[in-house]
Each structure stands twice: as C-alpha cells, then as structure tokens.
Design goal:
alpha/beta; 8-stranded parallel beta barrel; 9 helices; disordered N terminus
C-alpha cells in the first residue's frame, strides 16, 4: 500500500507540471490512456477557391484527415465523393445548414415541413459522399416556443426521418448549441434515448456547453459510448467569449481522460474561422496540442 506523498516528491511533481505548462509540452505521459482521435475541419473553413480535389488536398497538406460539409450548400457532391476517394480525406459528416431557419420546433407546420425536407435531403447527401452522420440542431426555444413545445415538435419531426436514416445507414446526431434547449447532460441523454433508435445519437460541442456550467468531461461521461457519435469544438472563455483553440476554459486533459474512459474513437472537428494554408496549419497545430496528438 502506497504511503502519503512526501514533500520532496510533491515539489518535484509540481515543478514538472509547471515546466510542462510553460513549455507547452503535453501533460500526458507516454503510457497514459488517450482516445484515438482523427482531426477534421468544417469544409467551409478551407479558404481556397478551387475544385473539391484542390481543397481536400490542402486539408490533407495541413494535417486533416476529414471534413464536414453543409447541406444544402455544397455543390457537385459526386465530384466531392470522387475527390475524397482520390485524396483519402474523408467527408465524415454533413451539417443540416437550415436547422436554425427552418426549425423543427416552429409553430408553423409549413416551416417544420421544410425543415424535415432539409433533414432528409442532408441524409441523402451524406450517403452520396460517404458520411455517416448528419449534425442537427433539433429546435429553438424562444418567446414563441416553450421548452416542452420544442421537445415534442422536434421529436415528432426527427422520428419521421428515422426510416430514411436507417435505409441509408446514416445517423442523426443531435448537437448542443445556444438554442435554450438541452443545456444539461441529463436532458440530452433523455432526448436521445426517447427515440429508442440506434439511428439517433449525440454530437457534443465541447466549447458550447461551458456557458451552462457543467464541465464538458461530465457531459461526455454521462453520454457514454452508446450515445456519443461525434465531437467538435472551438475555444470559449467565460471572461473573453470566443478565443483561439487552446486559450479557452476547456479542461483538455480532463476531456481527453473522459473520452478515453467512455471508449470514444473517431472524429474531432474544429469549428472556427477559416483561411488559407498558413491559417489552417496553425489550427492543425492548436488541435495537436490540446488533443495530445
């Protein structure tokens, strides 16, 4: 049985941690258990006016293994699918790009119908490019929509899309954002589980939820492997709002520990302002540092 740590050992450990923080060295030892993560960016972050082939080649040059596209909003999907195969850069996911406008929680039935059509279209686009998820903000709570109404209306519409999701083999990934809906991990667990379907899971934005007070690692542990499909992040500071990756309040060592505990392996996607090669390489380096890659 180990005895209490001595003063000399305590000082030595403290000095090592301080040195690592000052030099930017990883805080993880070589034998620490870490999740197996693959770096990706949102496709719109690639600031190059060129073909899909050229844009994916730039992403690969900057160290990214995958991208996530918008639907609607991304043209020539067959060409993109071919470029993905040729470059080896996966189009791992699709983002429903109209979910804030044509909300599935709208009081207007016609707006909800448009939102459902967009979701089904995104599922089909995902199949075309070889993606396995569609990121969805399920609804918005505001002066016209209560929490309960958002829950019931959005659930009803998502349920209508499940047969298509199952047929195409593409999962609907519910993302947590600043929409006044699902601000606690227990709520996300309940929402996802309410469908009783393997075709609905969680897309956890590590930075978005800092605002609501529950540490990201706690969200991850409560979601667990069964529900957690994808993660993305930015950099968020309660004092300064949006900041560069690695400069926010995210406790990255604890986040990585939680991801490893639940057995998460897969995509980690940056969602920040885009740019050209120099900017993308900077983002790639920031991601390497916080993800321990």
């Amino acid at each position: 049985m180990n005895g209490p740590i001595g003063r000399r050992d305590f000082l030595r450990t403290t000095a090592a941690v301080t040195a690592a923080a000052m030099t930017g060295a990883p805080l993880f030892a070589a034998d620490d258990k870490k999740p197996k993560l693959k770096k990706a960016v949102k496709y719109g972050m690639i600031g190059l006016k060129g073909t899909h082939q050229e844009r994916l080649e730039l992403a690969k040059k900057c160290g990214f293994l995958g991208v996530e596209i918008d639907s609607p909003g991304t043209a020539n999907l067959d060409e993109l699918a071919k470029a993905s195969k040729d470059t080896g850069v996966a189009v791992h996911g699709v983002v429903d790009s109209v979910h804030w406008r044509d909300t599935l929680s709208s009081p207007d039935e016609k707006v909800r119908a448009k939102g459902l059509d967009a979701l089904i279209g995104a599922l089909k686009d995902a199949k075309t490019v070889g993606a396995d998820t569609v990121l969805l903000v399920p609804g918005v709570v505001n002066k016209d929509v209560s929490y309960e109404q958002c829950w019931e209306r959005s659930r009803a519409e998502v349920a209508k899309a499940l047969p298509t999701a199952e047929k195409l083999g593409v999962k609907i990934a519910i993302e947590v954002v600043w929409n006044n809906f699902i601000t606690k991990p227990e709520q996300l667990v309940e929402y996802v589980d309410s469908f009783k379907s393997e075709w609905v899971g969680a897309y956890f934005d590590i930075s978005n939820m800092i605002k609501y007070g529950v540490p990201p690692a706690e969200w991850i542990r409560k979601l667990g492997t069964k529900r957690l499909l994808k993660i993305d992040f930015k950099g968020f500071s309660k004092a300064r709002q949006w900041v560069a990756i690695g400069e926010g309040d995210e406790d990255w060592p604890e986040v990585l520990k939680a991801l490893a505990e639940v057995g998460y392996t897969g995509w980690a996607t940056a969602e920040v302002g885009g740019g050209g090669e120099e900017h993308l390489k900077k983002i790639s380096a920031q991601m390497d540092k916080v993800l321990g890659l």
